[in-house]
Amino acid sequence: MTTPVLETLNLEKRFPAGSKGLFGKTDRWVNAVSDVSLRLAEGETLGIVGESGCGKSTTARLIMDLVTPDSGEILFDGQQLHRDRANLRAYRRNVQMVFQDSSASLNPRLTLEQSVMFAPVQHGVPRAEARARARELLEQVGLDPARFAGRYPHEVSGGQRQRVNIARALALRPRVVIFDEAVSALDKSVEAQVLNLLADLKEAYKLSYIFISHDLNVVRHISDRVLVMYLGQVIEEGPAADLYAHPRHPYTQALLASMPSHDPDRRTTAPPITGDPPSPIDLPPGCRFAPRCAFASDLCTARAPLPVAAGRQTVACHLADPASGHPLLNGAKT
Amino acid sequence: MTRLKPVGTPGHILGTDELGRDMLTRLLYGGRVSLLMGIVPVALALLIGGTLGLVAGYAGGRTNALIMRGIDVIFAFPSILLAVAIAGAMGAGIANALVALTIVLIPPLVRMTEAATTQVRALDFVDAARASGAGTFPIIRQHLLGNVAGPVLVYAASQLSVAIIMAAGLSFIGLGAKPPTPEWGLMLNTLRAAIYSQPMIAALPGVFIFIVSLSFNLLSDALRSAMEMDA
Amino acid sequence: MTEPLLDLENLTVRFRTPRGEITAVDRLSLQLARGEVLGLIGESGSGKSVTLRALLRILPEKRTAISGGMRVNGRDVLGLKGRGLRAYRGGTVSMVFQEPATALDPVFTIGQQISQAVMAHKGCSKTDAMKRALEMLELVKIPSAASRLGSYPHEMSGGMRQRAMIALALSTSPDLLLADEPTTALDATVQIQVILLLRELQKELGMGVIFVTHDVGVAAEISDRVAVMYAGRLAETGTARQVLGLPRHPYTQGLLASSVQGLEPGARIGAIPGMPPDLAQMPPGCAFAPRCALGR
Prior knowledge:
The complex is a heterotrimer. By secondary structure, chain A is α/β, with parallel strands linked by helices.
């Protein structure tokens, strides 16, 4: 197997719940990310889906080292990432992130060109060259530099701002770009344009993507492989086509069945699961999905399932493991 | 008492004070002292408090807790009492009053800057800058200062009027400027005796304090709307 | 023909802004029958939310000019004032907002908020109003409703809050329910639950619903009829089956084509070029013409 360009091993992150005082110690924790291991192959797009509180954004921030993990490792090109200044700088040249579009994604006091130039200048690129590169990138993301270079973020639309965010992420010529809900705030017609743009840029710059979104349709469209997260854990992972055609984990099945049908003649008739995703503060024992799962048994609340291979997918569910002893396995299921 | 001449006396448009000195001249010269005692402490407090607030806001965690709790201790005293206590302990004089006022003005400016910094610090574009591998100093200079400066300057401008009133207060109770320096608070004090014979004259320094502090408040409001326009 | 529940005739909403006057809703004519669900689809700036707010008469009066006809139950809504207007807002017509977290008052419990609305509109006693509040929470299937009456909005999850918001909106038995992207802020598995709940309640209570959304899929799940808005104007309207199955307007076609739903993964998406026009500088003629493949 070839070395993945980016790999994480057992990333863990907990945040203290609520505010803590000067000497305050807290015994309540938000379990944002638990034991997340992922591999991103060169030239691949890895989609991460899940609902709010599932840890997908924290995972992105952990990979970007904007948040320091409690434990676990990040490997780039097979090399373990050490958190010293020189190493981090080199790593950050290679791994960049595009944030969700909002009025906060760009510095309101910098022109679009200045925003794109900032990172290269910090990495020692001469200003003139950085400016030329910024203009070239703006051009490439579909913004005529003659018209847009000198504008401020509040003078352009959301779709245009997101194009600048993309240009900014590409300014250091990274090899991996992480998109955290990067098209979620955009109108559908603009979202389509940006998705097409991402496909073009990926080819032009030989990029690898990690694409995080709550929109299952968009993730299927763009991803080669997909990772499904629930309450901080990866519960299923596999090639996009397989995973969407044959979801193995009951949660993945419910998530896919929750997508609106788009056809007024074939409406959804019953909700696939009830209730809201629970809070990541007080985790249920055993399998974290058990309280909402239609197939949960005593085994599920007693013991957390480990990821097992099922076809080309990996699933963390007792039902996918023939040796687990789940009562439903003794029936017709194979 | 004959030295006191009413407003409108030929040669003394605003009259004269209890020693026969021209009021207009003294009020104008007094303005220099009052403005100095308003602007200098605010400028110093902005420098010191702004830096502390920026550090506390950007560093977060323990550093933040340390700075902010320290500030809370100072802020726990009513500011005018604290100014009186400090100036009283150090003795009368303009320089000492300036120090006292600066100390009193620091805590609100630290709080304001810290709040603004913490807010901007959490925005995505700062994270994007961090993720680009930029160092702390360039991030603060390029991404934080410009966005924090606006609200902090507006607030500082509003503090100018507070400082002028407090300075006048200190001088009024004898802890600021000393006679014969013309200072509005001090003049208000020495003219107290004239309040029944020449009430207009006695009120004049007060009117000037009022107009100047009102002007600074209007300036602060104008700054705020100017900032909003370009954001 | 019976009188429609809602009759909009050339509804026009203009805002005075520092940059000049803009027309947020431009000559919109729509009708809604009793017991019908209309899905109002459009992108940001299309005027869909403004239409709802104009219907509820909650736009700032000083900066807004509304013209055209707006009748609910045959009554002229634009002529309502004072007491009549208050009875209309929240009584005849009520609204479910996108963000229940901000639309609910954080300092009152859910029970208090619903019972206050009931008392104001039905003039019943506090005990009866509380009873009604409990009924409503049960109706929207909030588990252990009785204990939830005493909960504050922040103590509830997002999906639960939106259910509470719906309970509040329905507590006064409105004839017309306005829903402004009520499921957009919710997670996928919760969104479908809320859509199904709304569908069920609508059938049970027989009210008319205008459901504003930017999501074609959500509109398909809930609407009998669909209206597509673009730049403040109505682009196309018809039954959900017609509009979503066989769209006639190039914009609707483009909107459906730009969805990745049902598309071969990785294939090019048929995106509409350009972006919606600036409402302050509208193109002459058809608002969609500059982006239209069939234009010129």
